[in-house]
Amino acid sequence: MGYKHSIEEILDVGYDVIRKNGYHNVGVNQILKEAHIPKGSFYNFFKSKEDFAIKVMQRYGETNAAWMQEFFDTSKLSPIESLKSFYKFMIDVNEKDDYLSGCIINNMSIEVGRINNTLATNANDQFIGWLTILANVISKGQEQKEITTKFSALEIAEYLHAGFYGTFSRMKVTRNRTYMDIWFNLSFEFIQG
């Protein structure tokens, strides 16, 4: 009897393959090869490549949201310092990845967001989940007068999120952290209360 594959293992392989190569550059056969599974096993779990991509994004989005929540819940720093620590960590992660991949949700948004409503909606749902977590931290910072109240917590979360993920395009072409560091310094000066 052969090895029984779990959906989580297949999604983890798919995450890595799609994040590095893009949605359009990856076929089901490549996923099968990387995951070491037969075609029948793939279609036992997923209706199509699109269904697979949705489940990859959902798994990544939910895992990332849980990690973010734990990061902020266990932080001993003030809200603004927790946000700084979070983004410093994210910048360091991308540096360790040699600026290759960025975020699969961001990558999918750019690649297929305009041409595939189903994938676009799913990517946006993941972003909203993350923004809600950031907005809660920002709201606490506003209550403590660390963060400006000229804008709502959700607007500031969107500003930070959009700016940070916007630096990924510069990061990938320059293969360094310069623009992430510029974004970091300007953003935290801007939102400071």
Amino- and carboxy-terminal Cα gap: 63 Å
CATH topology of the domain at 57-191: Tetracycline Repressor, domain 2
CATH class of the domain at 57-191: Mainly Alpha
* Largest sheet report: none
Give the topology string: H per helix, E per strand: HHHHHHHHH
Poorly predicted regions are none
Structural class: mainly alpha
Shape summary: elongated
Number of alpha- plus pi-helical segments: 9
What is the CATH superfamily label of the domain at 57-191? Tetracycline Repressor, domain 2
Number of strands: 0
Cα gyration radius (Å): 18 Å
* CATH architecture tag of the domain at 57-191: Orthogonal Bundle
Q: Report the sheet-strand fraction.
A: under 5%
Helix content: over 70%
Mean pLDDT: 91
Summarize the SSE layout with pairings.
Elements: H1 7-21, H2 28-35, H3 39-45, H4 49-74, H5 79-96, H6 104-112, H7 117-143, H8 153-174, H9 178-191
Helix pairs in contact: 1-2, 1-4, 4-7, 5-7, 5-9, 6-7, 7-8, 8-9
Description:
With 193 residues, the protein is mostly helical. It has a domain at 57-191: Tetracycline Repressor, domain 2, CATH 1.10.357.10. Helices cover 76% and strands 0% of the residues. It has helices at 7-21, 28-35, 39-45, 49-74, 79-96, 104-112, 117-143, 153-174, 178-191.
